[in-house]
């Protein structure tokens, strides 16, 4: 009877015991001396997500968890290695060193990431080789020719690598992979940069917005791309050589003033805000700074991004600015900012008598050079 009772108890204990969970990630390192293998998840920054257990009588380490959120991860070991992974639902994933090469099973997205990283590493090696190709001594003309040749070859290598990365991006739209690929660098060279590859950034932002809009790194990236859109728009609508958009803005008496009324005179526009320290630093010296140009016919027009009419007008009086002043009191939501593509305060836009933009800048020294060239003509 006692034997039967013991048998039943053992059966009950075994049946009630919690089964060991199946690993979602298995890591087989190239070193037998590891004491710690950890997985870090990227949110605002990489934070510890899980710690692996070493399997009994094995070199394999296993990660077990009930829930693994989609995201970018780093597998880190106590020997200093860090391996980037994209975990997106397919489990288990197996990472191992085989013939001194890192391989992965069960995760095609990470495999594509590593492929892109290899392309970038090859580009980096090509750039270093080209950079080291300069002879010890060259005459100035020969040096410039060699330099130009090297730069052209770097751009060729970069373009080839970029084409390969673009293909990987296009084949992995419904993953987080494009988020990482568009930010790849080879040394100091970005494979994609804001000024030349804005459309790539726009496309990737659309992919990510559809795929995983709530993931913090995606939100941060989309925010940067939104700023890029404004910058691209700014450089397109206020590009030197283009006509200034004919926007109407209220003056201090709420009468709409069209910017086209300034045609016939060289005009310097300054977009500013009375609560901006940098703006006020300039407006306090604006009349003295522009006096030589105003004597030669330059007109001044200050377009404010204020929302408080009293503060705006008080600043005008304090800084003694007897010139044109326009403001719709809508602040950052002003359609004027959108119409001119302005993202930074203060910003200068210099326009000639025909209404053609000569220069635009956030830097006073730059706009002074443009003023000197325009007024001398």
TrEMBL record:
It is found in: Cell envelope. InterPro entries: Thioredoxin-like_fold (IPR012336), Thioredoxin-like_sf (IPR036249), Thioredoxin_ResA/DsbE_sf (IPR050553). Its main location: other. CDD domains: TlpA_like_family (cd02966). PROSITE patterns: PROKAR_LIPOPROTEIN (PS51257). It comes from the Bacteria. This is TlpA family protein disulfide reductase. It comes from Carboxylicivirga linearis.
């Amino acid at each position: 009877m006692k034997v039967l009772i013991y048998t039943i108890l053992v059966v009950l204990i075994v049946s009630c015991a919690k089964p060991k969970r199946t690993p979602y990630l298995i890591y087989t390192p190239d070193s037998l001396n590891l004491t710690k293998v950890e997985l870090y998840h990227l949110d605002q920054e990489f934070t510890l997500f899980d710690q692996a257990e070493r399997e009994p009588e094995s070199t394999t380490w296993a990660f077990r968890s009930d829930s693994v959120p989609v995201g970018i991860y780093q597998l880190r070991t106590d020997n200093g290695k860090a391996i980037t992974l994209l975990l997106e639902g397919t489990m288990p994933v197996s990472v191992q060193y085989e013939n001194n090469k890192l391989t992965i099973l069960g995760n095609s997205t990470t495999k594509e990431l590593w492929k892109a990283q290899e392309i970038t590493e090859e580009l980096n090696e090509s750039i270093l080789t080209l950079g080291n190709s300069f002879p010890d001594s060259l005459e100035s003309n020969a040096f410039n020719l060699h330099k130009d040749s090297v730069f052209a070859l770097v751009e060729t290598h970069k373009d080839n690598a970029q084409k390969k990365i673009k293909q990987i991006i296009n084949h992995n739209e419904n993953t987080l992979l494009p988020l990482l690929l568009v930010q790849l660098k080879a040394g100091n060279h970005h494979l994609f940069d804001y000024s030349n590859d804005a459309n790539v950034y726009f496309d990737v932002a659309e992919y990510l917005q559809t795929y995983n809009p709530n993931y913090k790194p995606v939100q941060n990236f989309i925010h940067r791309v939104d700023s890029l859109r404004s910058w691209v728009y700014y450089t397109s609508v206020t590009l030197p050589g283009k006509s200034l958009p004919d926007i109407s803005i209220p003056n201090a008496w709420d009468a709409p003033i069209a910017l086209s009324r300034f045609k016939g005179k060289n005009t310097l526009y300054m977009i500013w805000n009375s609560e901006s320290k940098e703006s006020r630093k300039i407006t306090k010296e604006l009349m003295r700074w522009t006096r030589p140009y105003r004597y030669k016919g330059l007109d001044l027009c200050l377009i404010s991004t204020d929302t408080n009419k009293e503060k705006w007008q008080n600043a005008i009086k304090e800084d003694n600015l007897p010139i044109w002043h326009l403001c719709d009191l809508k602040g950052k939501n002003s359609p004027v900012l959108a119409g001119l593509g302005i993202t930074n305060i203060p910003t200068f836009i210099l326009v000639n008598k025909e209404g053609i933009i000569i220069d635009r800048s956030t830097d006073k020294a730059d706009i002074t050079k443009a003023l000197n060239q325009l007024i001398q003509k």
